[in-house]
From TrEMBL:
SUPFAM superfamilies: P-loop containing nucleoside triphosphate hydrolases. Belongs to the ABC transporter superfamily. The keyword Zinc-finger does not apply. PANTHER family: ABC TRANSPORTER, ATP-BINDING PROTEIN. GO terms for molecular function: ATP binding; ATP hydrolysis activity. The keyword Nucleotide-binding applies. CDD domains: ABC_DR_subfamily_A (cd03230). This is ABC-2 type transport system ATP-binding protein. Residues 5-234 form the ABC transporter domain. Keywords: ATP-binding, Nucleotide-binding, Transport. It comes from Belnapia rosea.
Length: 242
């Protein structure tokens, strides 16, 4: 069976500057791929292209076999995407926003109510359900973003820094949630927290200057006595010097 995520030769140029350079990888069901790299390496740009939110200059991305450019609705049906930053529509309440995204996904009536309640329970948002998103703290805003990504229980999750801004307890909860969902899904998370990779990821890709410099399970990267931190510094500082 084909991988749930297939990226081939994905490239993005901005006015002569290449932010993502010929990136290819695929992710199978059951894999949690940690997407690592220094600031500006091209992680968010890759994730935005994979999620169909930014057209590539070159190359293709497919989600459950659907090309994100040619078959955007089919691709998005199978995708939950947590972008960087806070959810849009800051004036909506948490429950209003989640019901709105659920309706866009085609849910109505009791199914919409059940899915909204379940997404809030998974991300522990019940206590702020009637609060406008703009009045929430950074960590709660991230959790609203995560809740909308999970609402339709998609087989593919693309999560841009899912634990950014969360307190240690919430980081723990979200990592636990990712681990619980992992067997049924293909998940890509970007993170700057290297311990997170060991905690939840079955595989790690490090990119630097838009190029993949390593693609291996964390345990393999940590062989020969190197910590992931040392591997990251060696590979990415080497790239910067080049
Ligand atoms: N819309 C845009 N126009 C021009 N340049 C852009 C645009 N979006 C991103 N870039 C540039 O592309 C490069 C990659 O950015 P990107 O946000 O993908 O990096 P990142 O790896 O996610 O970084 P960080 O870890 O800081 O979030 C950066 O140099 C950034 O300035």
């Amino acid at each position: 069976m084909a991988a749930l995520i297939e990226i081939e030769r994905l490239t993005k140029r901005f006015a002569g500057f290449t932010a993502v350079d010929d990136v290819s990888f695929s992710v199978e069901r059951g894999e949690v791929l940690g997407f690592l790299g220094p600031n500006g390496a091209g992680k968010s740009t890759t994730m935005r292209m994979l999620a169909g939110f930014m057209p590539p200059t070159f190359g293709t991305a497919r989600i459950c076999g659907a090309d994100v450019v040619d078959q955007p609705v089919a691709a998005k049906r199978h995708l939950g995407f947590l972008p960087e930053g806070a959810p849009t529509y800051p004036e909506m309440t948490v429950t209003g926003f989640l019901a709105f995204t659920g309706r866009i996904r085609g849910f109505r009536g009791s199914e919409l109510a059940d899915r909204t309640a379940h997404a809030m329970a998974l991300t522990q948002l019940e206590g702020v359900r009637l609060q406008p998103i703009e009045t929430l703290s950074k960590g709660f805003k991230r959790r609203v973003g995560l809740a909308q990504a999970l609402l339709h229980d998609p087989p593919v999750l693309v999560l841009d820094e899912p634990t950014d801004g969360l307190d240690p307890n919430q980081k723990h909860e979200v990592r636990d949630l990712i681990r619980r969902m992992a067997p049924e899904k293909a998940i890509v998370i970007s993170t700057h927290i290297l311990e997170e990779v060991g905690a939840v990821c079955t595989r790690a890709i490090i990119i630097a200057r838009g190029k993949v410099v390593v693609d291996a399970p964390p345990s393999v990267l940590e062989e020969q006595g190197s910590t992931l931190d040392e591997v990251f510094r060696r590979l990415t500082l080497g790239q910067e010097a080049a």
